[in-house]
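Batch 3, record 17
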Amino acid sequence: MQERLSFYVRRKSDLHALNPLTKLTLAFVLTILGFISPWYWTPQSVILLVIIPLSFLGKVQREYFSIATRLILPATGFLFFMQAFFQPVGKDYIFQFWFLHITPESLALAFSNASRIFAMVSSFTLFLLTTHPSELMSDLTRRGLPPQFSYVIISTIQIIPQMRAKAQTIIAAQRSRGLDTTSSFIRRVGALFPLVGPLVFGSLVEVEERAIAIEARGFTSTRVKTSLYDIPDTNLDRALRWVLIALIIITISLRLWLS
Amino acid sequence: MDIISQNILYFIIAIAIIILLLIWAYSTKRLQADFNTITWTLIPVAIAINIAIGEIVVTLKLPVYLDSIGTVLVAVVCGPWAGALTGMFANIIWGALIDPNAFPWFPVAFFIGLVAGLCAKGGLYKNWWKVIVTGFLVALTAATVSTPISVGVYGGITASGSSFITAYLLQIGQNLVPSVLITNYLVEPFDKISTCLLAFAIIQGLSTRFLARFPRPENAQIEQGATRTQLLIAVIGAVAILAIYIFVVVKTVTQ
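Prediction for the assembled complex:
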């Protein structure tokens, strides 16, 4: 069981060497471009011409393709089918099965929506594969994000695997004591409480101890804290961020000018 | 402007409203009143509770999400703004690290936390039937805010089972936005009322000494009373309200 909930893969590559904020900006910009650009084929070209080459540049192509086929493709595929069958656009049915039908327009719309979601998830996956969460949070804190926010995010990332493991343990323990989790609806609803109770109360008890612990470590101090690690922010990073912001502005103006 | 772009605009407006609300709360010191060191430690645990219970419910194959219990919990004992931020962070982290489809719904989570906290502040969380009223109000807000997101980001058809209801409504000739709105109004009350009741049960199970450490323990002071009669009143009242509600919704649809 992983002790931290993250996709990060430790490699030495050009992408890993970039500042975390640059990579975050890149992920956001690619997503937003997919959604607001007036050109129909934007999400697909972003995926093929930007994301996949970048995954090679970051030496994470194998992990990216594995995640894309295992997680992203099924989810977006399901979305594609739901949209193709149920979007009420267009009139001529090119395919009909019982009460489900597809029109060319609904197919186009479904493909467009599914590609946008695919581009969004892919760009963020690429970001997460090449950025260590602690590095990201340190950098954002240095830039002015309140340290409490980065505590919340890092803490959540650490607690979730712990809690999942606890939940599995509790489910197994209660099942071995005869808890019925597979029969009728009423039984299953009743099964919820012996599962949720120990999990929730066990975790809440820890909250007070944690609060005392972090207060003892100077959490509420307003002084600037010195960081052990220095995260580089080069001129290349700055230039890249400005280029990306300019891209967004150009796309928005294009969209407004063309509509 | 076509419907999708219009709803993307609503999404952006919702985000703008959230930012403005946060700025207002910060400058009038309301935001800080909700936050203590223990609030900051409760929030990650609450987010983890959201995710863990959401996953348990999937294992048990129940027709509800129950993924906002932690948000409501924080909203009641710490305050509306803490609850709102919990919801937002929960969706963002869930979307970034587990299931990207959870990400666009963070404004909904923000308003769930906000409304639940405001109801608790107004004393609407002190016994069973008041909790059900809170749950109902939260459900209405959640349904209203999630409709533009559903239409703008997913075109009205999301990957959840409730989309079949939307599809049916579209087939019988309703427009896109009313269909999504009606689907949400039908599905949300069950989920949110159960969520609020479960959060209430959790608060009842915690000791007063523990609750006293949080910024707003007075919201969690349960009114003493005959619990069994109250529970009975609450359940009958809830069923009656839901029955009337569904009747009204179906009547408006089939006109």
